[in-house]
């Protein structure tokens, strides 16, 4: 009888303990005002994979106000955005095979969504990373920082 009570107490104590597992998914929205709803994202080093779910909360089509989510070293953002313009909409405004790009979603229009999953092992501890939209002209406003944390 005593063993059952102790076992029950142990189960209850474990069930009420805070969950320490890292959240390895983030949802972010882009809108018709060329804004992301998050200025920063933190990625735990304990995540084997990290998923970004992008939603376009606006109404405009992707040809007029499309958005994507592109992750790169901060120093590479401008060059990636410039090369993306030349790649065009069929390539999601990301140059094919661009090794500077850590991860990216496709271009989406109002009401659409997309996601991308990548390994945080691609990120260097203490590195400076920026996420941005590579639709022409959007990267100056639609950007944020991504930080790898313990």
Q: What does the model show?
A:
The chain is globular and about 40 Å long. With 150 residues, it is α/β, with parallel strands linked by helices. It has helices at residues 2-16, 62-65, 77-87, and strands at residues 25-30, 40-44, 50-56, 70-73, 101-104, 113-118, 129-132, 143-149. It contains 3 helices and 8 strands.
Write the layout of secondary structure elements.
Elements: H1 2-16, E1 25-30, E2 40-44, E3 50-56, H2 62-65, E4 70-73, H3 77-87, E5 101-104, E6 113-118, E7 129-132, E8 143-149
Parallel strand pairs: 1-3, 2-8
Antiparallel strand pairs: 3-6, 4-5, 4-7, 7-8
Brief characterization of the structure:
The protein is 20% helix and 29% strand. With 150 residues, the chain is α/β, with parallel strands linked by helices. The N and C termini lie far apart (43 Å).
Mean pLDDT: 90
Q: Helix amount, in percent?
A: 10-25%
Shape: globular
How far is it from the N-terminal to the C-terminal residue, by CA?
A: 43 Å
| Major sheet attributes | 5 strands, mixed
The strands making up the biggest β-sheet line up spatially as 2-8-7-4-5
Along the chain, the helix and strand elements come as HEEEHEHEEEE
The total beta strand count reads 8
SS content category: alpha/beta
Q: What is the percentage of strand-forming residues?
A: 25-35%
As residue ranges, the low-confidence spans are 2-20
Instruction: Indicate the radius of gyration in whole angstroms.
Output: 20 Å
* SS summary, helix count: 3
């Amino acid at each position: 009888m005593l063993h059952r009570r102790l076992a029950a107490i142990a189960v209850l104590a474990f069930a009420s303990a805070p969950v320490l597992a890292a959240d390895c998914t983030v949802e972010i929205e882009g809108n018709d005002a060329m804004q992301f709803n998050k200025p920063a994202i933190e990625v735990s080093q304990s995540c084997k994979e990290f998923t970004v779910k992008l939603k376009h909360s606006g109404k405009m089509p992707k040809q007029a106000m499309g958005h994507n989510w592109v992750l790169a070293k901060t120093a590479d953002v401008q060059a990636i955005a410039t090369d993306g313009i030349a790649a065009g909409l069929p390539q999601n405004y990301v140059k094919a095979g661009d090794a500077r790009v850590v991860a990216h979603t496709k271009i989406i229009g109002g009401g659409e969504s997309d996601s991308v999953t990548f390994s945080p092992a691609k990120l260097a501890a203490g590195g400076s990373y920026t996420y941005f939209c590579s639709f022409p002209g959007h990267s100056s406003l639609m950007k944020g920082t991504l930080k790898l944390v313990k």
